[in-house]
Amino acid sequence: MKFNEPEHISHPVVYDPAVFKKEKEKSRKLRSSAWWKKKRSSGICYYCRKKFKPADLTMDHVIPLSRGGTSSRENIVPCCKDCNKKKSYLLPAEWTEYLNSLSGENPAEV
Ligand SMILES: [Zn+2]
Fold first, then answer.
1. How far is the CA of 18 from the centre of ligand 1 (A)?
2. How much distance in Å is there from the Cα of 25 to the middle of ligand 1?
3. Block mean pLDDT (10 aa), the chain, length 110
4. Any idea which fold 17-101 has?
5. Separation of 26 CA from ligand 1 center, angstroms?
6. Phi first, then psi: what are they for 80, rounded to 5°?
7. Which of 10, 21, 34, 48 sits most deeply, having the most CB atoms within 10 A of its CB?
8. What is the CA(61)–ligand 1 centre distance, in A?
9. What's the rounded Cα separation, in Å, for the pair 43 and 96?
10. What is the CA(29)–ligand 1 centre distance, in A?
């Protein structure tokens, strides 16, 4: 039997600064794209489904870059400042709870 497996590291972090930088750069470019402007012009927050002024919506990565998410269009959604703020301090499990507490509506699939 081998005992050299580091079992206490149950959540290996896949974090490559070079990839992170590239994805950040990609999202920066997407922010000025027609695709994003059109998406944001709906004024609907992806999470709480409330209506906002397009200028009040921020760009959010559903799966954060720091958790292996990418800047693909599927992973980027418009999000109001309230949700953005909440999301940034909640753990993923708590965030899911928060979403479930919002009128029971599931975020629409894009
Ligand atoms: Zn919201």
1. 31
2. 24
3. 48 72 95 96 96 96 86 96 90 86 62
4. DNA Binding (I), subunit A (1.10.30)
5. 23
6. -75, 165
7. 48
8. 13
9. 22
10. 23
- Measured in Å, residue 105 CA sits from the centre of ligand 1 at 13
Among 10, 28, 14, which Cα is nearest to 69's? 14
Structural contact between residues 99 and 60, judged by C-beta atoms closer than 8 angstroms: no
CA of 75 to the centre of ligand 1 (A): 16
Q: Give pLDDT, residue 103.
A: 65
Instruction: Decide if 79 contacts 58 (C-beta within 8 A).
Output: yes
